[in-house]
Amino acid sequence: MAWFKRTKEQKADRRVKIPEGLWVKCDNCKEIVYRKEVERNLKVCPKCNYHFRISAAERLKLLIDPGSFRELDPDLASTDPLRFRDSIPYSERLAENRKKSGLSDAIISGEVLIRGIPAAVAVMDFSFMGGSMGSVVGEKVTRTAELALAKRIPLIAVSASGGARMQEGMFSLMQMAKVSAAVGRLKDGGVPYISVLTDPTFGGVSASFAMLGDIIIAEPRSLIGFAGPRVIEQTIKQQLPPDFQRAEFLLSHGLIDMIVSRKDLRETISRILTLLK
Amino acid sequence: MIRYYLDFEKPIQELELKIEELKRLNSGQDLNISAELDKLEQKAAEMRYEIFSRLTPWQKTQIARHPDRPYTLDYIKMLTDDFIELHGDRRYSDDPAIVGGIGSISGTNVVIIGHQKGRGTKERINRNFGQPHPEGYRKALRLMKLAERFNKPLLTFVDTPGAFPGIGAEERGQAEAIAVNLMEMSRLKIPVISIVIGEGGSGGALAISVADRLYMFEHSVYSVISPEGCAAILWKKNGDLGSADFSRAAEALKLTAQDLLRFKIVDDIIPEPLGGVHRDPKAAAEKLKEVVLDAIKELRGKSIEKLIEERYRKIRRIGRITGAPPVSNDNHKHPPGPSTS
Ligand SMILES: [Zn+2]
Questions:
Q1: Domain locations along chain A
Q2: Which chain B residues are within 8 Å of A136, Cβ to Cβ?
Q3: CATH 3.90.226.10 fits A54-275, yes or no
Q4: ipTM of the assembly?
Q5: Which helix (H) or strand (E) holds B65?
Q6: What is the pLDDT of residue A1?
Q7: Residue B160 included in any domain
Q8: CB contact B223 to A (< 8 Å)
Q9: How many domains does chain B have?
Q10: What is the nearest CA distance from B101 to chain A, expressed in angstroms?
Q11: A85, A104, A170 member nearest B224 (Cβ)
Q12: Distance CA A134, CA B320 (A)
């Protein structure tokens, strides 16, 4: 199964970027909208409610109380244990992505306040190698979960990922077991875990911590699944039904609890945390 | 006997055909033929050794997928004195791509689960080439919980190209089914022993192999993505892919038992008879039985708390990173993560 499609990543990159200039074309409704208006609207299309992909930093800004972020493990970085080389060596690809994104890897984690409630958060960034999970993403999610358990504060994880990171081979695959084991300890400890799925969440991330939330929230229209739609199409040689693997599809199949618009996310999470107290 | 030979086994095939023909001709009296036979058999043995001691990762991948290689049910038959297969996830269906049940190995009662590929076109299709749906993973989970309830060690056999990518699989929560198994296996209150017998295909393989002891047969493979999938991502734009590309990808992915032992991701390698397990399944099963019974004995000696703590630490350690170790909290010690620098 190809969790990590470069073609998809490139396409996604085009999608995620709202071009410079006054006007933006929405990927969903194709309407031309005023860029400032989209940005004021938390990068949600004012015409059709399409949620543009956003960075981890932008996500944090709309999720947590201003000034409350205390970052965990900012300096964790991947090594290149396989000495993997695609078109360029993996070590160079990492360096390129670090430079481009200003991130050390595809995730930021920290201790925060959400409407005054202390919480531990881990937020993925799709722009860093398609949000793929290698040793660093696995380790940071695990440490964040362990911190949540130690301090008995809720864990919030926001996913955006094409799946496991091919370039770290089996080290990446085993991160799925690691993060799931850490979530298991949270459950044993009775500490709440809210998982927020954003566009896209696939493969090794959906098949581990992302689908293990006590409560699972998804953003409208986001694509979520195990296998990517292209892989499925190639395997079964059929056209996929409309809305397949969209958040709405998952909700109707009983796989998630709710779909929440970006502007309501902080409010919804704080209400859940208050009710679970 | 009709065997299936892989491309790189062709020199062995030619020799073996010659040997068989000579054997047919030889009434036993012709000393010349007997001498020639001895020579050829010697040569065949040398050639097998030559080829099999230097298999490339792609050749190992092909051996791991060899159609004559024993599957889960074959091992169950060879290992157990008694076995009863159990069916269904009690929620949706019975997935023939995963089998399981209760059995006894030399007087030790166990629960066994494994991926199951089929033999022959009809069975292969019925078992979906060993690619489970969510109901397969949920059946596996049900049997894990059964093992836990009755305090039986759990044995799992890994042999799948991966979890099935299909519409129904997505509708019924393939990702969730795998995720739940990973979490539940990490805290099962029984010894868990997993053996990669053939192909360990990504998350679909991991979903039944979070274990206290993870073993791989000598020529089995375990990978985050198939060499074909990896090659397609990396080089498809260069045109049609061939075995040279798959070979390169298999090399890059470090998917052999030997690589994964070196990375300390697997605990040990179970040696295979010369020419692969399918050349002498009984010998392989004997060796496997020894390994499994030893592991059960060792793991049974630990308290449940210790067993689960050690399993957590074992998984927790995997990863290669640089940077500061976790900050330790006042009333909580972080288990050691991957070594950092
Ligand atoms: Zn729109």
A1: 54-275
A2: 319, 321
A3: yes
A4: 0.94
A5: none
A6: 41
A7: yes
A8: yes
A9: 2
A10: 24
A11: A170
A12: 9
